[in-house]
């Protein structure tokens, strides 16, 4: 077994700099317990990198990621950089190219309710109890990567376009991945599209229908994205694996995060290339940044996914997940999950509790 793993650490902006150290803390506790060597190298990305060197994704940062075994990312962006030209905006200038350069076409977002959080959600107990959904979001194509234009029109206004395009190849590789995941779970795949309106979605649906023949053991359902948004709240337990387009997946997973109690509980793994990237599903939360209020558990759970998917250290991954479970059962809560009778902790205290449990 490999003993040394190189991890690129990119805290980024806003709460990114608060939550990433807590995930590193958990990884260090794992290294100590299991006798691994994790080598952490920190680099600038996003607005922080723009401020320091004039570009949100410096070459050195990309090279560090390419030469690491895995990347741990916090969050990128914030109001300070919103008015930059689009190619320099942290999200478009750093996050998207980072995912593209590393070839990370599949973004896994497991959405499950931890015991103890049944009353943290705004949704009814009987609706969310037992929810366990894996959303596979296509990550390097679709609307976010299509051509963007902006031009002046004769009437003195402007015209802007974003193009949504997919090839059979791009659809096939992510859907195949989702089928393989469904095979290891409850064998149900829901493919989400907007095939009643969009041509790219028609190709998506045709491609899934073809692939379904190779997976007769998996039940395939097609659903329109607007219906899916409703079904996730009406009856989320109908879903096992959901596979969908980049932007649809982005939006549906913010929605699905409320099934888990908070967006601060939703981790993610981006895979498909040689180096995996692990980040919480949420953003830089400028409204609470710098106040030690951020929930670090989504990032800590993303570190667990790193151990599972990049390093194949399943027992170590489960050790982190069990530590999170224990800390929640004992009643520790960051403000986003707080309810009467529980123990309020800040970002650092939550990270300490998880590391102690490990
Ligand atoms: P957001 O996810 O940052 O925040 C939405 C709401 O959820 C806020 O009220 C925030 O306080 C709360 N929240 C998020 N994470 C939390 C946590 N760990 N603990 C407790 N509460 C949490 O989304 P928003 O406000 O739309 O975007 C803020 C910035 O982040 C923007 O610049 C956006 O572009 C960027 N962004 C970056 C992402 C990334 O780096 N992957 C993903 C999404 C947004
Ligand atoms: Mg998002």
From TrEMBL:
Matching Pfam families: Iso_dh (PF00180)
Reaction equation(s) it catalyzes: (2R,3S)-3-isopropylmalate + NAD(+) = 4-methyl-2-oxopentanoate + CO2 + NADH
GO molecular function per UniProt: 3-isopropylmalate dehydrogenase activity; magnesium ion binding; NAD binding
InterPro entries reported in the protein's UniProt record: IsoCit/isopropylmalate_DH_CS (IPR019818), IsoPropMal-DH-like_dom (IPR024084), Isopropylmalate_DH (IPR004429)
Residues the record marks as site: Important for catalysis: 144, 194
GO annotations of cellular component type: cytosol
Positions that bind substrate: 99, 109, 137, 226
Binding site for NAD(+): 78-91, 283-295
UniProt cross-references to SMART domains, sorted A to Z: Iso_dh
Family the entry assigns: Belongs to the isocitrate and isopropylmalate dehydrogenases family. LeuB type 1 subfamily.
Protein name, entry field: 3-isopropylmalate dehydrogenase
Organism name: Thermosyntropha lipolytica DSM 11003
């Amino acid at each position: 077994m490999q003993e040394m793993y190189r991890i690129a650490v990119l805290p980024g902006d806003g709460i990114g700099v608060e939550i990433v150290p807590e995930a590193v803390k958990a990884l260090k506790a794992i290294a100590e317990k299991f006798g691994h060597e994790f080598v952490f190298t920190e680099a600038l990305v996003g607005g922080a990198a723009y401020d320091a060197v004039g570009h949100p994704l410096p070459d050195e940062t990309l090279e560090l990621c390419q030469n690491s075994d895995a990347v741990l990312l916090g969050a990128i962006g914030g109001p300070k950089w919103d008015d930059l030209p689009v190619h320099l905006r942290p999200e478009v200038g750093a996050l998207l190219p980072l995912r593209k350069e590393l070839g990370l076409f599949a973004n896994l977002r497991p959405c499950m309710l931890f015991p103890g959080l049944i009353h943290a959600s705004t949704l009814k107990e009987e609706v969310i109890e037992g929810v366990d959904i894996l959303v596979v979001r296509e990550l390097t194509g679709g609307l976010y990567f299509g051509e963007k234009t902006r031009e002046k029109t004769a009437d003195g206004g402007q015209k802007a376009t974003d193009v949504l395009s997919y090839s059979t190849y791009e659809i096939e590789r992510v859907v195949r991945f989702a089928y393989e995941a469904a095979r290891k779970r409850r064998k149900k795949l829901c493919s989400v599209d907007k095939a009643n309106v969009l041509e790219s979605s028609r190709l998506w649906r045709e491609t899934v229908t073809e692939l379904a023949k190779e997976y007769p053991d998996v039940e395939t359902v097609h659903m329109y994205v607007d219906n899916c948004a409703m079904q996730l709240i009406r009856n989320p337990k109908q879903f096992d694996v959901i596979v969908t387009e980049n932007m649809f997946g982005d939006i549906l997973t913010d929605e699905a995060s409320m099934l888990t109690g908070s967006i601060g509980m939703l981790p993610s793994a981006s895979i498909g290339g040689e180096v995996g990237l692990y980040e919480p599903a949420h953003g830089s939360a400028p409204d609470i940044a710098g106040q030690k209020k951020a929930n670090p558990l989504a990032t800590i759970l993303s570190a667990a996914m790193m151990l599972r998917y990049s390093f194949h250290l399943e027992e170590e991954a489960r050790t982190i997940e069990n530590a999170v479970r224990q800390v929640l059962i004992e009643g520790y809560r960051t403000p986003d999950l707080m309810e009467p009778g529980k123990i309020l902790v800040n970002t650092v205290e939550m990270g300490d509790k998880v590391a102690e449990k490990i």
